Each structure stands twice: as C-alpha cells, then as structure tokens.
Amino acid sequence: MVIRIKILMTWLSYALQETQGHEGAKPQRVAFCGNLNYLFTCGFSRMSARQYAVWNAVSVSDFCDLHTHFNILTDSNSHT
Asked: Which end of the chain is more exposed for a tag (fewer CB within 10 A), N or C?
C-alpha cells in the first residue's frame, strides 16, 4: 500500500507537489506550519513504529526524519 503526501491548490485540478509518505498502513497526519512553509507529519513504519518528519513545502523531496528515543526527538540526519 503506497500512501502519498500531496500539496493541492483547490482551484487547480492537479497536485502541485507529491511524494511518498510514511510506509505503514495506519493513517498518517499532516500539519502545515504556516509562515515557515514546512509540513509536519506523523505516521508509522511497516513495523508499526511511530515516525515523525518535517518536510519543505516548496520541495517535498527535502525532509528531515525525526526519531524518538525515550520520548526525545532527535534529527536522524545529524551526525553528532
């Protein structure tokens, strides 16, 4: 099952941006972060582990995957 994240303009008949969302079968949630032009998503992996991500709304291919360990959010792209 492929779940897609789409950015739509209601007056257009097509998606402006589209990318693959979280891999799990459970529903995912998306919140638009207003003036920052970011999307925050919460979904699940194939193994039903909760996942968080922050996406650039201008180019949804750019995202930051966030992991939770002991209820602390960490950026999985940082190497420190």
From this structure: C
